[in-house]
Amino acid sequence: MTFAIKAEVSNPGAATFAFDAQKTMYGGKHIAKGDRIFVFASENEGGPGLIAHGVVISAEAIAKKREIARQTPRVSISVRRIASAKRRLGRSELKPFSNWNDDRPETELNFKFYRQATNKIVGISDRAAAFLSNFF
Fold first, then answer.
1. How many of the other CB atoms lie within 10 Å of CB of 11?
2. Which residues touch 54 (CB under 8 Å, ≥6 apart)?
3. Given this model, what pLDDT does residue 115 score?
4. In whole angstroms, what is the distance from residue 76 CA to residue 60 CA?
5. Which of 9, 55, 63, 64 is least crowded, fewest Cβ atoms below 10 Å from its Cβ?
6. Are strands 120-124 and 16-25 parallel, antiparallel or unpaired?
7. H-helix or E-strand containing 17?
8. What domains, with CATH codes, occur in the chain?
């Protein structure tokens, strides 16, 4: 499975990224060392959207807290950059793709990242991964 993360990125040009205790949705909790991942610098924190393609070099699930009944699974990961995005792809480019039943990769990304605008790690389809690969 391929993954994507939308998170705050303090150094968009870094060779490696560390993301601590990130929320997961849409299969994101299954991320593991060696998985392919696309990195989006969150526009909520001033980022431009898609910045990098990489490989997960470490992944560790965060234990749930006993005192909280309903929790979103969280994972800490480290990512090694393989390539930098050559074209822009962010919220404004994906916003027009809101027909949730059209089966387009752009719509999948809009739905998973921006329908609920929180930062998160998500699992993405092979079609969405192929679409994102065109930006490198």
1. 9
2. 17, 36, 37, 38, 39, 79, 80, 81, 82, 83
3. 87
4. 5
5. 63
6. parallel
7. strand 16-25
8. 2-133 (3.10.590)
